[in-house]
Amino acid sequence: MKNGRILFSLLLLISIKSFAQEFDNDSVVVNNNLEFKPTALILPGVLIGYGVVGIESDGLKFWNAEIKEELNEHIDEKLTVDDFSQYAPALAVYGLNAAGVKGKHNFRDRTTILLTAYTIMAASVTTLKQTTKILRPDNSSANSFPSGHTATAFMGAEFLWQEYKDVSPWYGIAGYSVAAGTGFFRMYNDRHWFTDVVAGAGIGILSTKCAYWVNPWVTKKLFKDKQTQATSMVYPYYNGEQMGIGAVFNF
Q: pTM of the predicted model, to two decimals?
């Protein structure tokens, strides 16, 4: 019975995500950039909110303890697959492109988006870990909340979804399944509470969404328009004493 509740809780992350796409599909893609829609904040907001409430909620703390107890009773050996699976969804984007399955963005733009998402995610996770100081289930350290591995995995899963949802939704579903599995193994290995994992998932999803929303601005700052790069001007000048030719090159 308890095993069923654990699996239900983890699969709920995927189910909610699929449901939320009904809202997310209202987002308009302009020049391959995702336009901001308030409804896209619903899913990550609920997940992050659940985790934050769980810091003080006796009911959610009890649920955390129940899951930990069940896992500790039935698992004898730890597996470190989560150390690798957290990166799988993001790497899949590059693997698919290398295999000839083109996503929404070219190499430069998708890499910019991914780096932006990772920066947002890492800053958020690090700040919360240092602020909340929640003890890990295995009592190894007081930086349990939120789960960085889970945040990384869901960041990559949302990245995979955004790049390939127009090609096939199954790519995104596969990415989110791997991300949910990563969250499970963080609990399996006694490294995180369920609330840590849920909050990490929300942070990961939101980080990638934010990266897509700000991508036009980031791209404009980092990479000037090709026409602007090619702009040059040659002109004669006379300063009252000397004559010559001036040139301006804009890189």
A: 0.79
The pLDDT-based confidence of 32 (bands split at 50, 70, 90) is low
| Domain coordinates in residue numbering, the chain | 2-249
User: What confidence tens digit (pLDDT) does each residue in 185-224 have?
Assistant: 999 999 999 999 999 999 999 999 999 999 999 998 888 7
Domain 2-249 part of CATH 1.10.150: no
Rounded to an integer, what distance in angstroms lies between the CA atom of residue 43 and that of residue 19? 9
CB atoms within 10 A of CB 187: 26
